[in-house]
Structure formats: structure tokens, C-alpha cells
Specification:
The complex is a heterodimer.
Chain A (H helix, E strand, L loop, with lengths): L16 H24 L7 E6 L17 E3 H14 L5 E5 L7 H13 L10 H32 L1 H15 L7 H8 L3 H25 L3 H9 L4 H37 L5 H11 L3 H29 L1 H4 L3 H12 L16
Antiparallel strand pairs in A: 1-2, 1-3
Chain B lengths: L2 H4 L10 H11 L3 E14 L2 E9 L2 E3 L3 E5 L6 H9 L6 E6 L2 E2 L7 E4 L11 H11 L4 H14 L15 H14 L4 E5 L7 H17 L3 E6 L2 H7 L2 E6 L4 E7 L14 H15 L11
Parallel strand pairs in B: 4-9, 4-10, 7-8, 8-9
Antiparallel strand pairs in B: 1-2, 1-3, 1-5, 5-6, 10-11
Helix pairs in contact in B: 4-5, 4-6, 5-6, 8-9
Classes of the chains: A mainly alpha, B alpha/beta.
Chain lengths: 355, 289
């Protein structure tokens, strides 16, 4: 049997597994290749000229300010050389170059290492790893408080119409106010340290979270609620044994998306009050025109985000075995239980939290 | 002229001695469920619509009663009201003589859609009602395994519902309801989503369970054969407004088997049901209404 010819543009048709891996790789390789092409192939873009030798600087007139190591527009460089040629003087030499803000891939790759090993330029500034760690803490606490209040409130709004009517309109109203506008207020109330930053992350995620969680909670199949009612569940039991377990896997997915939002607000949060964290590092490197470090830091944020999300996805597969079919955690729980006390019926190994 | 008209069928109201004896015995039993002048009115954009009017039904202990009718006759509304998931506009539902308010464990229900809790294993699904009542885990677990054994799914106690077929899910749902020891088991087209073969085996299975367990069943269906095969009595509803057209004592002897669907009493009952529901099935004039 010959495999069916791959239809590359089949509407909503899955691609064969053997193509998926290299396509995913290509998703990253293509932008990287484009970056390399622009950086290393001189005639593609390179709008500037890096002056190696300014030529005869004693000839005054037309662009006589050229000096060694300067980046000038190509047109300027050519006009200067024409002028020098007409004067019969020594010509300027140089090589085509990209603007300083476009670092080449190898420079950024190097910066990944050197950014960590280069001491801060000024005393009191932070090392990169300190900045990153600080950012992670801000994100964690901002998101922690948002979830601490947002999850219960959202679940209540999604469960009881009373809560929904009472809270959601106002939450929806505040949601439209961009979190950064509260920056000045947060500094006035909480001072210059980390509290106002955590507050911005909180404001940025909390209000969205309440609405998202409420909606997800409302998605729980009403037939399950009816079934539970005919099995004698009272109001409190419905919430605890049907609404919450029914919504939890979806809420977990929502949280993964909302953490991404928290990262979006991080940059604003870190630039208010006393600049801090990875944003301060990027801001500072940009001022020193270390664009390779800037790129390295931005890519690092991407990696941290991707890593966290994949970790959470991986943990999720163990947490919700009825969706993933992964009963690893349940088996572990059964084993742990067997260490304490006599073994119960071998069937008592459903996942934790499902009783 | 249809084939049915050419057949020489007995009157559906004619009962053999054995059947008549069962009917007499049943009618002497205590009433588990009854409704009194039950009505349900919905407000639509075109004004109020009467889904049910003047419904008076009785279901006696360990009786198997079906409710059948064309779509829109309000049979699902009726069972939802009995379950307490919907409120009547007039009248009331009584269990053992006391009116019901809202859903409760005394009226177990099996739904047409699959309503097992996907996050619980099969066993924990069956334990659900008992846990809500505050039973100890061990007691509930032993009981759950017993009920799972009864529906033939003890082997699947630790599976998640997503790992079961449709028929198996419904068997677990039946076990889950029965484990609660309800006064009456309400079944709302429980086999409606199953394929014909699974359906037939589920019907057989349900009768076996009903025979071995002390349970009264009120069964909603739109399948005539299913209603006749399973029931002692069939309540026929008409639409617009939903009302009781006739209550038929099924003249087919027990124990039932699928082969009985070719007997005269079965066919006569089916023809009567067709007449009532579709207005077809031969001349109604041959039967006294």
C-alpha cells in the first residue's frame, strides 16, 4: 500500500505525524534564517557604512566629519568619497553595516553567556541573574494574589447568579482601564519598592481572571448538576463535588494563559517607581547601546515563559488523569498510602482530590 | 389497507388469565408516585403555551410504567417535574403521599445524555449518592461494587467514564441511581442515544435488574416496541396541550422476551399505540376508545 499523497493545503486536515516535527522546527528556523540573512549577507539590507579609514581628513567641505569607527549612511559615505576623488585626496574606506540596533545572531548568542558574566557597569546595578530572579518573584506574587482572590470570586460568580449580578458588571468596568494607569497611584500608596509592581500585575490579571473563571465555571455541563441533584446533593455539595471538580481542568488551562498576561504587565510594572528586574536591565543595556544584551534578555523571557507553560502542561497531565489517561499520580498516591497502615482494597487508588 | 389490518389480532384490552392476575395484583399494591392535576405552562413570545394539563397518574410499588407520546407532548417536562428539576404551574407530585419540593435522593434519575462525572472513576461515580448522604467510604465502596456487579461492570470499577462505551456508561448510570435505593427510578429515554443492538441488550438487561431489585420504574420513551416490551402499563400522552390520552395495561405476559414482539397481544397493543400517537395503524373504529 502506498501512503496517500500528502495534501499540504487540505482544509482542516491534519498533516501526517512525520511532517509535524520538522514543520515545528521550521517555525523557529525560518525567522532565524531570515535574521541570519539580513545580518550576514551584505547586499540584502546593510544601509550603513562602518568607516575603517576616513581618508584625508584635511580636505574640508562635504561631510568632513567622518572618523574611524563611525557608522554613516551609505549616501553620505559615497558623497564624501566623490568629493575626495575630485580633490585628488586619499579616499575613505569602510564596510557596509547594519544599524547598531540590529545585532547579529552570533553576537546575541554570545550575549546569552556574557550577559550573565559581565558585572554591572555601575555599583548598585544588578547582575542579570539577579534581575531575572527579581522579575520572577514579582510575577509570582502578583499572580498569586490575583489567583488567591480571583479564583474563588470567579467560581462564585459562575455558580450563583447573585454573585454574578453583584460583582461582574463592576469587574467588567475596571477591566477596561489599562493597568498601567494605576501606576502613579500604586507608587503613592505603596512606595517605591516591590509592592506597587505586584499591585500592577495584580490589577492587570485579577479583573480578567474573575471574568474568565466565571465563564469557565458556567461551562460545567448542567446535566451533571441535575444528575447530582437527583442523587441527593445539596447546594453546598453541588459546588464542592460537581462545579469545582468539573471546572478545575479548564481553570488550570485558563491560569496558564493568564500567566502570560502577567508577563505582559511585568514590563510596565518594573518601570514604575524604582526600575527593577529584567525590564530595568533591558532599559539600562539599551542606554549603553548593548543591543545584543537587549535581544538576549527578550529571548530569555520567551524561554522562561515557554518553559513554565510546558512545565504546567506536563504537571496538568498528572493532575487530571480522566482527561489525559495518565494515572501516574494516582498510582504514586496508592503506593504512598500502602506505606502507612494496612493496604485497603486494591481499588482505592483514584487520584487525590477526587473524593 | 396495511398489513396490520389483515391480521386477525386480539383486542388489546383482552387479557389472558395470567396477565389479568398480575394486573389485579399490581392494582392492590401501594401507590409510590402520584400526580394530582399536574400542569405546566411555559411563557413563549407568542403567549403562554400549555406543555402539560391535568396530568393524573399513579405508579405502584415495583411497577414498570412507561410514558410515551409524540415529540412535544411534554413527556420530558413531566419527568423533570417528577424529578424536581422543574416546577409545575398547577398541581403537585407526591411520593408515598407526601408532596415533593425540589430534587431528592428518593427519586433517582437516568438521563438520555451521559451524565457520569468524568473526573470520578466508575466506582466513585456509583458511590457519589451514598457519599452525599454521609455514608462511610468503606460501606459505600462495598455497596458500589455490589451494584456494579449487578450491572456486570465490576471489572471496570477503576476505569474513568471516558474509557467506557455508551451502553456501559448507561449501565453505570443505572447502578449509580440504584445504589441510592430510590423509591422510584426515573428514566428519561435512557437508551435513546444507543445503536439498535446495544439498545436491545440494554432493554433485556434493565428487565433483569428490575426483576432482581426492589425498584419502581417510570420510563420515558418514544419507541413503541420498547414501551411494550418493558412495561406493565403505558401512559400515552398527546401533544398541544400535553395530556393523558389513555393508560394501557400491557396484555403481554411476563417474563418478557424479544420473540413476544410477534405475538397477537403485542401487535394489537402496538397498533393501538400507533393509532393514538400517529393516527395511523389501521382503523381505530375496530377498537373501543
Amino acid at each position: 500500500m502506498t501512503p496517500r499523497k500528502t495534501r499540504w493545503f487540505g482544509v482542516r486536515e491534519p498533516l501526517p505525524a512525520r511532517h509535524r516535527v520538522w514543520l515545528t522546527a521550521l517555525a523557529f528556523i525560518l525567522p532565524l534564517a531570515l535574521w541570519c540573512a539580513i545580518s550576514y549577507i551584505p547586499f540584502l539590507w546593510h544601509p550603513l557604512v562602518l568607516v575603517h579609514d576616513p581618508g584625508d581628513t584635511s580636505v574640508k567641505g562635504s561631510h568632513d566629519y567622518l572618523s574611524q569607527g563611525q557608522l554613516v549612511e551609505r549616501e553620505v559615505f559615497e558623497q564624501r568619497n566623490e568629493f575626495l576623488r575630485a580633490a585628488g585626496a586619499k579616499l575613505a574606506t569602510g564596510a557596509r553595516a547594519n544599524p547598531i540596533y540590529l545585532s547579529a545572531p552570533h553576537e546575541v548568542a554570545q550575549a546569552f553567556y556574557t550577559a550573565f558574566t559581565t558585572p554591572p557597569e555601575r555599583r548598585g546595578d544588578y547582575w542579570l541573574h539577579e534581575s531575572l530572579w527579581h522579575s520572577c518573584q514579582i510575577i509570582f506574587w502578583g499572580f498569586f494574589y490575583a489567583a488567591l482572590f480571583g479564583l474563588p470570586l470567579g467560581v462564585l460568580c459562575g455558580t450563583f447568579s447573585l454573585c454574578s449580578r453583584l460583582f461582574e458588571p463592576f469587574v467588567d468596568f475596571v477591566r477596561y482601564m489599562p493597568a498601567p494607569v494605576f501606576g502613579a497611584l500604586a507608587v503613592a500608596v505603596f512606595g517605591l519598592a516591590d509592592e506597587p509592581k505586584i499591585t500592577i500585575i495584580f490589577i492587570g490579571t485579577f479583573f480578567q481572571m474573575v471574568l474568565v473563571v466565571a465563564n469557565t465555571t458556567r461551562q460545567v455541563d448542567p446535566a451533571l448538576l441535575h444528575a447530582a441533584q437527583t442523587l441527593g446533593a445539596n447546594n453546598r455539595q453541588l459546588l464542592r463535588h460537581v462545579v469545582i471538580p468539573g471546572a478545575v481542568p479548564h481553570l488550570y488551562r485558563d491560569m496558564r494563559i493568564l500567566i502570560g498576561w502577567a508577563w505582559t504587565y511585568l514590563v510596565v510594572a518594573e518601570l514604575i517607581g524604582e526600575k527593577s528586574g529584567i525590564s530595568a536591565f533591558i532599559y539600562q543595556q539599551q542606554r549603553y547601546r548593548h543591543f545584543d544584551n537587549v535581544y538576549a534578555s527578550i529571548i530569555m523571557i520567551g524561554f522562561i515563559g515557554l518553559f513554565c507553560d510546558q512545565m504546567l502542561a506536563w504537571v496538568g497531565r498528572y493532575l487530571f488523569p480522566w482527561e489525559s489517561g495518565n494515572t501516574g499520580l494516582a498510582q504514586l498516591a496508592a503506593r504512598v498510602r500502602s506505606w502507612f497502615g494496612p493496604p485497603r482494597a486494591a481499588l482505592e487508588d483514584a487520584p487525590e482530590g477526587s473524593t | 389497507m396495511t398489513l396490520n389490518d389483515q391480521l386477525d389480532l386480539p383486542d388489546y384490552k383482552h387479557h389472558t388469565e395470567a396477565v389479568q392476575a398480575r394486573i389485579d395484583e399490581l392494582s392492590a399494591r401501594e401507590v409510590v408516585l402520584d400526580t394530582q392535576d399536574l400542569g405546566r405552562r411555559f411563557d413563549s413570545q407568542k403567549g403562554p403555551v400549555d406543555a402539560l394539563v391535568g396530568i393524573n397518574i399513579e405508579v405502584r410499588k415495583r411497577e414498570f410504567v412507561s410514558v410515551i407520546g409524540p415529540s412535544g407532548c411534554g413527556k420530558s417536562t413531566l419527568i423533570r417535574i417528577v424529578a424536581g428539576l422543574d416546577l409545575p404551574s398547577t398541581g403537585q407530585v407526591r411520593i408515598d403521599g407526601s408532596p415533593v419540593e425540589g430534587p431528592g435522593a428518593d427519586r433517582g434519575m437516568v438521563f438520555q445524555g451521559y451524565t457520569l462525572f468524568p473526573w470520578l472513576t466508575v466506582k466513585k461515580n456509583v458511590m457519589f449518592g451514598m457519599k452525599m448522604k454521609g455514608l462511610k467510604s468503606k460501606t459505600a465502596e462495598a455497596s458500589a461494587l455490589h451494584w456494579l456487579d449487578l450491572v456486570g461492570l465490576a471489572k471496570f470499577a477503576d476505569h474513568f467514564p471516558s474509557q467506557l462505551s455508551g451502553g456501559m456508561k448507561q449501565r453505570v448510570a443505572i447502578a449509580r441511581s440504584l445504589a441510592n435505593e430510590p423509591r422510584i427510578l426515573l428514566m428519561d429515554e435512557p437508551f435513546g442515544a444507543l445503536d439498535a443492538q446495544t439498545r436491545a441488550s440494554m432493554q433485556h438487561h434493565l428487565l433483569k435488574i428490575w426483576e432482581s431489585v426492589d425498584v419502581t420504574i417510570l420510563f420515558i420513551t418514544h419507541d413503541l416496541d420498547e414501551a411494550i416490551y418493558l412495561s406493565d402499563r403505558i401512559i400515552v400522552l398527546g401533544a398541544h396541550p400535553g395530556r393523558v390520552l389513555e393508560v394501557i395495561d400491557v396484555p403481554v405476559a411476563r417474563p418478557r422476551s424479544q420473540e413476544q414482539s410477534l405475538t397477537g397481544h403485542f401487535l394489537a397493543t402496538k397498533r393501538r399505540l400507533e393509532t393514538l400517537i400517529h393516527g395511523t395503524g389501521g382503523s381505530a373504529a375496530t377498537h373501543a376508545a
